[in-house]
């Protein structure tokens, strides 16, 4: 994923913005069109069907950083960052995970202390997708070591701040998909804190709920195209055609769940723990479809490799199952460490 690819994606995003097609469901005052989430979803489907660029570099900004800023940010923060996300000028990364804290995110140890009107950040993040190209990041830090949940603070950090070093990691695809990010006395203004110092866990939860709900719309829409191609490829082979039909039925069911989730949002409901169901079934089905495709045709191998990662990023399938069991089905909680 090189600079030329990113530049092309930024240009495409800018064209969408200029055509009034970026952030259809975002508020008009921040560059959106104030349309319903359903219209946004229909646009995504048609855009992908017409061969529009996927916009992967803007995944964080468009699907969860932006919505978090709309939901939790101050008016100043919304004005500063939302138009740049829509125009492609501000590419966001997520700096949550650490070498010792992934599923158990509340265990992060990157620390920050308040000094005058800044937070001074020290520590290390890892698995930060496309952080080498990012202008800003969602950053979760520990501001109080004695308070597990109340000791976390969430801020948006400028990636060009002195003291931030980004080291790309090569993924199984052979490309530097994600990074390690080091913070050495990086000074981030307090005006970049989302909510207040010590309220980071609540804001991070909002981000994760957005990330686990409609953020996977593009994946689900993409699957419709993949199964249509497989159906065409295997139409004269009854055994394989039968399996493709099963996968295709599952894709339609997940698409229906996506539309149901969007309907709930349209009724004013914030995404809740049921969004874990969408993340779980979308990424597991994505894996199953690309596995079938890759066994038949090596051209699908890279998508198959990527499908493993989608089951982990944003919270693993095991964690989504735990959330559904405990918070949706009301089953007993597993013992906490
Ligand atoms: C493709 C990809 C992109 C990513 N992008 C980002 C990014 O942009 N920003 C970012 O901050 N992070 C990112 N991540 C990191 C991701 O969020 C973490 O890898 C994930 O949360 C799991 O954490 P971990 O790797 O520390 O594994 P661990 O938490 O150590 O988990 C290891 C295994 O144990 C299982 N496990 C852990 N706890 C439980 C439990 N309570 N019950 C049952 N099973 C459990 C897990 O399911 C997993 O199989 C990305 C990861 C991938 C693969």
Keyphrases for this structure?
337 residues; four-stranded antiparallel sheet; Butyryl-CoA Dehydrogenase, subunit A, domain 3; alpha+beta; binds flavin-adenine dinucleotide; four-stranded mixed sheet; Butyryl-Coa Dehydrogenase, subunit A, domain 1; 8 strands; Butyryl-CoA Dehydrogenase, subunit A, domain 2
How big is the Rg?
20 Å
Mean pLDDT: 93
Instruction: Give every kind of bound small molecule, once each.
Output: flavin-adenine dinucleotide
- Largest sheet, spatial ordering of strands: 1-4-5-8
How far do the termini sit from each other?
Answer: 39 Å
Tell me the count of domains. Answer: 3
What's the topology here?
Layout: H1 3-18, H2 37-49, H3 59-72, H4 75-87, E1 92-95, E2 111-115, E3 118-129, E4 136-142, E5 152-158, E6 164-169, E7 178-189, E8 193-194, H5 200-212, H6 217-233, H7 238-266, H8 275-296, H9 301-310, H10 317-328
Parallel strand pairs: 1-4
Antiparallel strand pairs: 2-3, 3-7, 4-5, 5-8, 6-7
Helix pairs in contact: 2-6, 3-4, 3-5, 5-8, 6-7, 6-8, 7-8, 8-9, 8-10
Bound molecules: flavin-adenine dinucleotide.
The site of flavin-adenine dinucleotide has 19 residues, from strand 1, strand 3 and helix 10.
Give structural notes.
The protein has 337 residues and is an alpha+beta fold. It folds into 3 domains: 3-91, Acyl-CoA dehydrogenase/oxidase, N-terminal domain (Butyryl-Coa Dehydrogenase, subunit A, domain 1), CATH 1.10.540; 93-199, Butyryl-CoA Dehydrogenase, subunit A, domain 2, CATH 2.40.110; 213-328, Up-down Bundle (Butyryl-CoA Dehydrogenase, subunit A, domain 3), CATH 1.20.140. The protein contains 10 helices and 8 strands. It has helices at 3-18, 37-49, 59-72, 75-87, 200-212, 217-233, 238-266, 275-296, 301-310, 317-328; strands spanning 92-95, 111-115, 118-129, 136-142, 152-158, 164-169, 178-189, 193-194. The strands form 2 sheets. The chain has a 4-stranded mixed β-sheet with strand order 1-4-5-8. The chain has a 4-stranded antiparallel β-sheet with strand order 2-3-7-6, with no helix packed on it. Helix 6 (217-233) runs antiparallel to helix 7, helix 6 runs parallel beside helix 8 and helix 7 (238-266) packs antiparallel against helix 8. The longest helix is centred in the last third of the chain and has 29 residues, at 238-266. The protein is globular and about 70 Å long. The mean pLDDT is 93. The structure holds flavin-adenine dinucleotide (FAD). Flavin-adenine dinucleotide is lined by residues 93-97, 102-103, 127-129, 178, 309, 312-313, 315-316, 318-319, 322.
């Amino acid at each position: 994923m090189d600079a030329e690819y990113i530049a092309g994606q930024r240009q495409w995003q800018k064209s969408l913005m200029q055509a009034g097609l970026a952030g259809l469901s975002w508020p008009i005052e921040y560059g959106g069109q104030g349309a319903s989430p359903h219209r946004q979803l229909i646009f995504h489907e048609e855009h992908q069907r017409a061969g529009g660029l996927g916009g992967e570099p803007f995944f964080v900004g468009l699907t969860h950083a932006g919505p978090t800023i709309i939901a939790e940010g101050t008016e100043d923060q919304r004005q500063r960052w939302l138009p740049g996300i829509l125009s492609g000028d501000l590419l966001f990364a997520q700096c949550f995970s650490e070498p010792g804290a992934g599923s158990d995110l509340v265990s992060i140890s990157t620390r920050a202390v308040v000094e005058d009107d800044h937070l001074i950040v020290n520590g290390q993040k890892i698995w930060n997708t496309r952080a080498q190209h990012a202008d800003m990041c969602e950053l979760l830090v520990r501001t109080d070591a004695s308070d597990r949940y109340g000791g976390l603070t969430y801020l948006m950090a400028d990636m060009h701040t002195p003291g931030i070093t980004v080291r790309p990691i090569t993924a199984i695809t052979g490309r530097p998909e994600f990074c390690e990010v080091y913070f050495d006395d990086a000074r981030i203004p307090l005006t970049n804190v989302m909510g207040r110092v010590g309220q980071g866990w609540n804001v991070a939860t909002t981000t994760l709920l957005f990330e686990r709900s409609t953020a996977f719309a593009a994946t689900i829409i993409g699957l419709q195209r993949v199964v249509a191609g497989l159906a065409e490829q295997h139409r004269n082979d009854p055994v394989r055609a039968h399996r493709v039909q099963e996968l295709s039925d599952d894709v339609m069911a997940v698409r229906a769940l996506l539309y149901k989730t969007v309907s709930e949002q349209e009724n004013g409901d914030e995404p809740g723990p049921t969004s874990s169901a969408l993340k779980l079934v979308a990424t597991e089905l994505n894996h199953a479809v690309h596995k079938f495709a890759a066994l038949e045709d090596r051209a699908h191998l890279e998508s198959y490799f990527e499908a493993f990662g989608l089951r982990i990023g944003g919270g693993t399938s095991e964690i989504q199952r735990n959330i559904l069991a405990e918070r949706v089905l009301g089953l007993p909680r597993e013992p906490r460490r």
